[in-house]
TrEMBL record:
Protein encoded by which gene: proQ
UniProt record similarity statement: Belongs to the ProQ family.
Cellular component aspect of the GO annotation: cytosol
Keywords: Chaperone, Cytoplasm, RNA-binding
InterPro entries reported for this sequence: ProQ, ProQ/FinO, ProQ/FinO_sf, ProQ_C
ProQ/FinO domain mapped to chain residues: 6-120
Protein's UniProt name: RNA chaperone ProQ
Organism: Idiomarina xiamenensis 10-D-4
Length: 235
């Protein structure tokens, strides 16, 4: 029965595995040690029979390790590069330190830009808060309506004007003749003086238009209304 090999694919897992295999060279926390130039070939040779790590994954993980801020800070003049067994093999030169410092600065700039972009996206995704309703807004609306020019009649005022006209017509009806007869449509003509039943008592008015069974009448108070011929009376 063949045992299944648990292959390592994540760079973090591979570095932890290298720190376990070569503790004098790699570590996962604390101050890093500058690595021997060409150490990849040494690792590949040591792990040639190890099926847990492929060369491709190993190369990627090693690149992440040497580009980490912790490692770049360790590359300083006066430090020694080490091999897999922790043995010093070469001193860090000034150009190596300069390159490490430049790489560290560029990496920090990229990280700051990514963080700023992330904050911007999060801010754009946040739902806008509803503006609190100001107290007294109803009073303000009523005040605004009260400030409308007096020359313009609102729709709400129209029924009031009509009601006043009907009341006036009702008062006029009290003096209307009592000897009234229901008019026949054929008897009516435009301009004729008639009495119109639009309430409890007939009201005086003038025929202004005849349309089939409807008769349009203008009352004495100026109000125009359309009624059936059965509601029109003549004396």
């Amino acid at each position: 029965m063949t045992n299944e090999v648990n292959k390592l694919t994540q760079s973090k897992e591979i570095i932890a595995y290298l720190a376990e295999k070569f503790p004098a060279c790699f570590n996962v926390e604390g101050e890093a040690k500058p690595l021997k130039i060409g150490i990849f070939e040494d690792i590949a040779a040591r792990l040639a029979d190890d099926e847990r790590v492929s060369k491709t994954r190993l190369r990627t993980a090693l690149r992440h390790y040497t580009n980490s801020w912790r490692y770049l800070r360790a590359v300083k003049v006066g430090s020694q590069r080490v091999d897999l067994d922790g043995q010093a093999v070469a001193a860090i030169e000034q150009e190596h330190q300069d390159h490490a410092e430049q790489s560290l600065a560029e990496s920090k700039e990229r990280a700051a830009a990514r963080a700023a972009e992330k904050r911007k996206q999060q801010k754009q995704q946040q739902p806008r808060k509803a503006q609190p309703r100001e107290s007294g807004s109803g009073d303000n609306a009523r005040k605004a309506r009260a400030k409308k020019p007096a020359g313009k009649t609102s729709r709400a005022a129209a029924p009031t004007a009509s009601s006043k006209a009907l009341k006036q017509a009702s008062r006029d009806a009290r003096s209307a003749p009592s000897n009234l007869q229901q008019a026949e449509l054929t008897q009516l003509q435009v301009g004729q003086q008639v009495q119109v039943k639009a309430g409890k008592a007939p009201m005086p008015g003038t025929v202004t238009e005849i349309d089939k069974d409807d008769v349009q009448v203008q009352l004495s108070n100026g109000l125009t209304m359309k009624v059936k011929a059965s509601n029109v009376f003549v004396s």
